[in-house]
Amino acid sequence: xxxxxxxxxxxxxxxxxxxxxxxxxxxxxxxxxxxxxxxxxxxxxxxxxxxxxxxxxxxxxxxxxxxxxxxxxxxxxxxxxxxxxxxxxxxxxxxxxxxxxxxxxxxxxxxxxxxxxxxxxxxxxxxxxxxxxxxxxxxxxxxxxxxxxxxxxxxxxxxxxxxxxxxxxxxxxxxxxxxxxxxxxxxxxxxxxxxxxxxxxxxxxxxxxxxxxxxxxxxxxxxxxxxxxxxxxxxxxxxxxxxxxxxxxxxxxxxxxxxxxxxxxxx
Length: 267
Known about the structure:
Layout (H helix, E strand, L loop, with lengths): L5 H21 L4 H75 L6 E10 L7 E4 L12 E4 L3 E9 L4 E5 L6 E6 L5 E6 L5 E7 L9 E4 L11 E10 L5 E8 L8 E7 L1
Antiparallel strand pairs: 1-2, 1-12, 2-5, 3-4, 3-12, 4-5, 6-7, 6-9, 7-8, 8-11, 9-10, 10-11
């Protein structure tokens, strides 16, 4: 093997090139080499940068979706709350309008009244009592009469609690109210017929009563003022023992639609 063999010349040339590259780098003349290398690698660098940007954008997109979802859920919740509040305000407005209308009709000058709203009723559907939103805190007591517009009697307070009270209606068979037929003055007892209506019985056979006669409270017993409207006679009959007259009475109140009841505290 000679010193200047082809193999040795290749090795020597490679060493020289490497020395030149190292020397040139120290001198700051590596820009052409770096430029050449960057030129070769730039397509790969661009692809990597685009791919990296795409991955970053993808995760940012996913994050924005989650943020938009949370914002949308909050907007839906706020919207539902606003709708509920709007319904509540409309209901309050309607109640206030109804209350003003009823106040214009009840005999305020004759009695001390406590306005109350119906918040519950007989769960058996017999229409025998209501629960109202006033109680001891408003000075209510058992036995106080309950009326609606135009002085129509609907019942009496039978139980009183802190903030509510039970009003037993005149349609309850346990309800007994002293009453009279307005035209003739015939006295009797008004009692309920299991939620179906009311009747007046224990009327003397000597009294004259007719269909269409008005039945009002007589004031006897002192618990209920005289002259409250009960209803009108729709049918006259005899008691089972034939000793008294009795009559079915159509109440002047629509019990199924009552929302406001006035309690007579003093008269």
